[in-house]
Amino acid sequence: MPSLGADMDAGTLVEWLKQPGDTVAKGDVVAVVETQKGAIEVESFLSGTVERLLIAPGTQVPVGTPLATIRTDDEAPGAARGMAPPAMPVPTVIPPLPRTQPAGPPALATERIRMRASPAARKLASERGIDLTSIAGTGPDGAVVLRDVERAAQVSPVPAPVPLVPEPAAIRRGFDSSEMRKAIAAAMSRSKREIPHYYLAHTFDFTPAGAWLQRLNAARPPAERVLPAALLVKSVAMALKSYPEFNGAYTAEGFRPSTAIHVGTAIAIRGGGLVAPAIHDADSKSVDETMATLRDLVARTRSGRLRSSEIFDPTITISSLGDRGVDGMLAVIYPPQVAIIAFGTPALRPWVVGAGIIPRTLITATLAADHRVSDGHRGALLLLEVERLLQQPEAL
Amino acid sequence: MTRPPVETRIRTSYREAIRAAIFEAMLEDERVFLMGEDVGRYGGCYAVSKGLLAEFGPERIRDTPLSESAFVGAGIGAAIVGMRPIVEIMTVNFSLLALDQIVNNAATLLHMSGGQISVPLVIRMATGAGRQVAAQHSHSLEGWYAHIPGLKVLAPATLEDARGMLGTALRDPNPVLIFEHVLLYNMEGEIAADAGAVEIGKAAIRRPGRDVTLIAYGGTLHKTLLAAEILAKEGIDAEVVDLRTLRPLDTATLLESIGRTHHAVVVDEGWRSGSLSAEVAARLAEEGFWSLDAPIGRVCSVEVPIPYPRHLEEAALPQPARIVAAAQAVMRR
Question: What CATH number does the domain located at B9-192 have?
Answer without folding.
Answer: 3.40.50.970
